[in-house]
Amino acid sequence: MDSIDLSILKCLKENSRQTASMISQTINLSVSAVIERIRKLEARGMIQQYTVVLDEKQLGNDLTVFISVRLEHPRFGETFAKEASAHPNISECYYIAGDVDYLLKIVTDSSHSLELIHQDIKEMPGVSWTKTLYVLSTIKNDVSVLPEQLA
C-alpha cells in the first residue's frame, strides 16, 4: 500500500459513496486507475465493507452503555462470543486483556430495555460478573483509523 492507496482510503472514509470520478479529481489520478486500486484494496481485504453510520438518537436509541464482562472460566469464551455476536443490541464485542474478559457496547432505547439486555447478558453461560458504564456524550466515534502518514 502506498500514499495513493492511503489517499483513496481517506476519501472513502470521509464518504464511502464517493464516485471514482470524485476521488480521481481529489487525488489527481485517472478514474480507471482509482477503480483498479479500489478493486485491489477490496481483493486484499483492506476494504472489508461499505456501510452507513446511523444517527442512533434519531432511530430512538437514546442510551449507549459499555458493559465489562468477566467469565468464570475461559472454556465459556466461544459460547459467550457467539451469543454476544447474535444479540441485536450489542453493537460491538471485544475480547480483552486485563481484569475482565469482554467489553460490550450496547445501544438501546431505554433503561427498561437495558435492564432486559443486562439480564440476557448475565444469563449467558459462564458470565460471573458485569460492570455497566453509561455514556453521557460521544466525543469521537470513528469507524476506522488510517495510518498517521495521512494526518
Instruction: Please mark out the parts with pLDDT under 50 across 5 or more consecutive residues, or reply none.
Output: none
The first-level CATH class name of the largest domain: Alpha Beta
The mean pLDDT is: 94
Radius of gyration, Cα only, in angstroms?
20 Å
Which percent band covers the strand fraction? 15-25%
Topology, number of strands: 4
In total, the number of domains comes to 2
Overall form? elongated
CATH homologous superfamily of the largest domain, by name?
Lrp/AsnC effector binding domain/regulation of amino acid metabolism (RAM) domain
The CATH architecture of the largest domain: 2-Layer Sandwich
Which strand order do you get reading across the main beta sheet? 2-3-1-4
The biggest sheet, with number of strands, parallel, antiparallel or mixed sense and barrel status, is: 4 strands, antiparallel
The sequence of SSEs as H and E is HHHEHEEHE
- Level of helix content? 25-40%
Q: Determine the N-to-C terminus distance.
A: 16 Å
Number of helices: 5
Helix/strand/pairing category: alpha+beta
CATH fold-level assignment of the largest domain: Alpha-Beta Plaits
Features:
151 residues, alpha+beta, Arc Repressor Mutant, subunit A, Alpha-Beta Plaits, 5 helices, 4 strands
Question: Can I get a quick summary?
Answer:
The protein contains 5 helices and 4 strands. The chain has 151 residues and is of the alpha+beta class.
Describe this structure in words.
The chain is an alpha+beta fold and 151 residues long. It folds into 2 domains: 3-52, Arc Repressor Mutant, subunit A; 63-134, 2-Layer Sandwich (Alpha-Beta Plaits). Helix content is 36%, strand content 20%.
